Amino acid sequence: MLGSHQLVLSLLIFFSLSKTNFTISMPELLSSIRHKLESCLNKALELEHADMGLIRAFDFSSNKLVVVMEKGFEKGVPEPFREATPFDSSACGRAAGLCKTVVIADVMQDIGLMPYRDVLLHAGLRSIKSVPLIHIDGTLRGILCMICRQQRWGWENVIPVDLLGQITACIV
Length: 172
What we know:
The protein has helices at residues 4-17, 26-48, 91-98, 117-122, 161-171; strands at 52-59, 64-71, 83-84, 102-104, 127-134, 140-148. It has 172 residues and is of the alpha+beta class. The protein has one domain: 2-Layer Sandwich (Beta-Lactamase), CATH 3.30.450. The protein has a six-stranded antiparallel sheet with strand order 3-2-1-6-5-4, sandwiched between helices. A hairpin with a 5-residue loop joins strand 5 (127-134) and strand 6 (140-148). Helix 2 (26-48) packs antiparallel against helix 5. The chain starts with a helix and ends with a helix.
């Protein structure tokens, strides 16, 4: 979860990037952000023809990527992948560390995920694409992760930049 100082900053940025009326209540605002993230995640999954996905926000105080929105996981995000850190062996950790899109076409052939193969297969994850969400100031703010139940070779970048920007604006 985002720290309170990051939440306040996120709300200020959200207000500055939108035409939101300042009379909106905190629960309404949080609901609005949640709705926007859900809408963006649904659009990304549709564009990428992915079965499940998640959005992670980068928590600067703990140096962790924390799940803020997920969709399609029957039993939730598998335990070893609920949190990630830059440069860890997960696709999200690699994308965060490198600040580049990471595609794992088949988790069964990825050496970094070898210790987690059983967990991944049990959860129905076979291919993963993690896209870093970079703020206009160049800092990592989160990760958009899309997952398929089948191997996915030749996974191209089809997510429009404006959609990535909308997600980033919500989690800043």
